[in-house]
Input
Amino acid sequence: MKVYLGLDGGGTKTDAAALDEAGELLARYTGGPSNPHSVSWDTALTEVMSAIDGLLERIREAAADIVSICLAVSGFSTMEEQAILKDAVQQHLLKRSLPIPVFIQSEGQISLMAALGSSFGTLVISGTGSICYGYSPDGSCHRTGGWGHILGDEGSGYRIGLRALQSVMRSYDAVLPATAMTGMIMEEYHLQRISDLKEYIYHSSAAKSQIAAFSKLCIQAAEAGDGAAAVILTEEAEALGGTAAALLRRNPELTRLPVVLCGSVFRHSPVFRGLFCERLQQSGGKLAIVDGSLGAPPSAGAAQLARRLVGGQAG
Output
């Protein structure tokens, strides 16, 4: 039996999967965040190695059958950064007597592979952060968005969470009407007063993933009919839809390929997903939009690519 490993690292978690040669899932392991822009570079690499070790422990008896590994870790974007990641993983595996090929791909490629069985198409991610990728059969790669939580991240969990926090404080000041998000946040975070939110956010030096976690309450409030939460989701879905539409407008060949939606915001918010799809379809043509959450996890897509790449196959 041949075994292939895949790893998907991001700002919230690191997910690793092992598949056999028939594509059957053998094991998964989930660890902490490994995006070096969410945690330190040392922590990111430590989390990647920890996830690999956790997965190896779960397939200990099949370790001798491992053929290759493919990784996609958000934040390791440049060739230099990917070279650092690849070298670190190779050295780590050699210490465990696993001299196997290590492939580095993008989060877009592994997510498309997981959803479609192909690495060609458009991928829109709305998780802790957001980004749009387009992969053409000619091998070219295109992108819009993905500029991080300061310069971009429209339609992301971070942006939605941040706007939810700002809305409840402006509601407290009576600038905005009352919102159900106030009580939901107080209950979830055990606050005596919503003004205590200031101490929680600033004194805890809240990380990007912690801010993004508030998006869950915004989504719940919007689904229950809260006006302030609905405005946030509507505007952020519109913004991300505009980013995706720009990608397709600049690369018309992508309109003939599927558009895959991935990430926690799409997964947990039918309202957001519907608004985004409506905005994107307005860009022209009849697009085939696929819900990526219904397929295999991106880590399994990475393992599928590990099998294809070691065999010299393209997407």
